[in-house]
């Protein structure tokens, strides 16, 4: 336990610290709850997007088996930019997925298969699902890191700072009470001696 001065000034300082800790703790607890809630929402959204991606993959799997080996469409689905916005959850800046933009590469209508248009659109959709999942993963990681820090702070206040400050206040009060009692006793002794002398 830290060494403290046993004075009235230190008592006031400790009381002020205790008020500050008790005022700040509910804010931290609220932030912790908000972060937990948002992380659960992001995890649910991740599961939902993954399920949509898997459902879409199964829908186009048969189509890919028929036409997939015939023509390579990957050069037509090159990502130019992942469009993101910034969001703020409980003081944490997070990326928010807006969409993707692809490099526009024209193709020769006579040299490419008839099914290339829907194939390119389907591939773009699959890539968009993957990009959205990546952004959700980044959100979860950033908020998880902030949740760990906030949880540590809540624990610091609840389990260390507030009990420690209360103990300091208790010790200072006991000491000051003992000092006051001793000064009263010394006063009575001194008064008794002066009465005896006179």
CATH fold-level label? Helix Hairpins
Q: List segments where confidence is low: pLDDT < 50 over at least 5 consecutive residues.
A: none
Would you count the extended β strands for me?
Answer: 2
Structural Rg:
34 Å
Task: Provide a descriptive summary of the structure in words.
This protein has 198 residues and is mainly α. It has one domain: Helix Hairpins, CATH 1.10.287. The protein has helices at 8-67, 116-197, and strands at residues 79-89, 92-102. Strands 1-2 form a two-stranded antiparallel sheet. A hairpin with a 2-residue loop joins strand 1 and strand 2. Helix 1 runs antiparallel to helix 2 (116-197).
Keywords:
single chain; 198 residues; mainly alpha; two-stranded antiparallel ribbon; 2 helices; 2 strands; 72% helix; rod-shaped
């Amino acid at each position: 336990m830290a060494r403290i001065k046993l004075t009235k000034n230190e008592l006031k300082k400790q009381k002020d610290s205790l008020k500050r800790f008790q005022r700040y703790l509910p804010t931290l607890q609220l932030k912790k709850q908000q972060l937990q809630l948002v992380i659960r929402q992001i995890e649910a959204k991740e599961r939902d997007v993954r399920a949509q991606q898997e459902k879409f993959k199964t829908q186009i799997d048969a189509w890919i088996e028929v036409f997939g080996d015939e023509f390579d469409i990957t050069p037509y689905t090159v990502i130019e930019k992942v469009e993101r916005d910034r969001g703020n959850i409980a003081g944490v800046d997070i990326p928010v997925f807006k969409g993707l933009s692809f490099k526009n590469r024209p193709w020769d209508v006579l040299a490419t298969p008839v099914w290339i248009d829907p194939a390119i659109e389907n591939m773009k959709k699959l890539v968009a699902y993957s990009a959205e999942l990546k952004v959700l993963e980044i959100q979860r990681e950033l908020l998880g890191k902030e949740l760990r820090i906030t949880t540590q702070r809540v624990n610091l206040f609840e389990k260390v700072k507030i009990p420690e400050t209360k103990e300091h206040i208790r010790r200072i009060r006991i000491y000051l009470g003992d000092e006051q009692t001793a000064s009263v006793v010394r006063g009575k002794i001194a008064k008794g001696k002066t009465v005896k002398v006179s």
